[in-house]
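note to self — DONT lose this again. spent like an hour looking for the file last time. sequence + predicted structure for the chain T wanted, 409 res
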Amino acid sequence: MRIIYVTACLPFGAKEAFLIDELNQLLGTHEVLIVPRSPGKPGPNGASLAAHTKRESLLSAQVIWTAMRLFARMPVRILKSARCLLRTRSLPIVVRNLAVLPKALWLAEVTSDWKADHIHCHWAGTTATMALIASRVSGVPWSLTAHRSDIVGNNLLNDKAESACIVRVISEDGKKMMLDRGVKANGKLQVLPIGVTIPPESPLERPEVAIVLCPADLLEIKGHRYLLHAWRLLKDRGFRGELWLAGEGELRGTLMKLSENLDITNSVKFLSTVAHASLLELYARRMISAVVLASIDLGGGCHEGIPVALVEAMSYGIPVVGTNTGGIPELIEPGTGMLVPACDSVALADAMELILSDDRLSEQIGMRARRHIVETRNVVSVAGTLEAWFSGRFDASVPVPRIELEARI
């Protein structure tokens, strides 16, 4: 099967590392062509995927020329396909969608020339706009994976859900958000978590110096300030160890200043962005004692989905601490990690102290966490489900509809 995967930037930039395992698994049995909407500069992740990528900037001369040539050949069909882009009162959404229209037409030609069988995109925003138009113009079926922020943005969600063969969300919380925005609760709307590669089993060894890792961009939603206050509480209780913050973001300066004010700079390390492979190497070498996310809910649907950062740590048997917000409670079931209230530094400190001071409890939680991930988020089974969807072999009460348009380009 020949599958086109539309991403936001992967394998370029520093984002979307959580898609790498899924893509590698599909590449093992299918031909996959990755088309990033906005490639940008080379980044630390996904270098192995470059050979399977079709790179073209959003408004390159090639994109513009292809769009103009295609429009000259089939103006009526393209106008019919694209008229839905004006079906919103949000001017910013209209502008963003029109900005990707030329590349959507370029993608339609790539889809036809490459003889693709299916188009799949991650994110329900402008990447889905590209896939939607490319599908309508080329006649090739498409599907999408929606995450969280893209659902909040509500960029023609209903139109896209009606057109796509499958609308995948990665959590029950994401499904509820889609339903709240009017997407129909039919067989096309399905929950399928992001999968990870299950590493070889190895015993959890305690590092000589306890290291707590927070792998998250330095953004308000990640709740780092509560984590830093919790770390101060642990230091006051006589705890020895280090807190590593792996990520970049707009709050870096503010958080570094807070660290200074709390007098914890000697035990807090700001690592900046860590390459995905390097992060997994830390887990494999058993250098990390626990992984913590202090995520908060900003309201209006701005909260965590199911963080792959926690999923990956759990797959290695590393105990995790997360907050009771967004989709995190769906991931951390009883006994598989520590779940604490959001915005509660004391609860965070208590949970970290319990894990870091009780070797037996830490090992038990790590083993249960790994088993839970093997059973529910193994990328092999996730990719198998995707393959069934893409090929139309869909086991649900409503069969996957096939797109019926004119002949392909």
